[in-house]
Amino acid sequence: MTQFSPFLNRWLSAVGPDKALSTLAELMGGAVFAINADGEILFWSRGAERLFGFSSEQVLGRPCGSVIRCHDHDGWSSVVQEGKIRGIPFEVEHAKGGTIRVKRSAQAFFDAQGRFAGAIEILWPEPEPNRKDIGTPPANEAEVFHGLITRDPALKQAFQIIRNVAQTDATVLIRGESGTGKELVAQALHEESHRRDHPFLAINCAALSAHLLESELFGHVRGAFTGAVKDHQGLFKRADGGTLFLDEVAELPLELQAKLLRVLQEKTFIPVGGDHPITVDVRIVAATHRSLREEVKAGRFREDLMYRLRVVPIFLPPLRARRQDISLLLQHFIDRHNVQGPRRIQSIEPEAMRVLLDYHWPGNVRELQNVVEYAFAVGRSDVLQVEDLPPEFREEPQSPSVPNIPAAESEADRIRRALASARGRIDRAAQMLGMSRATFWRKRKKYGL
Question: Where is the Sigma-54 factor interaction domain (predicted)?
Answer without folding.
Answer: 148-377
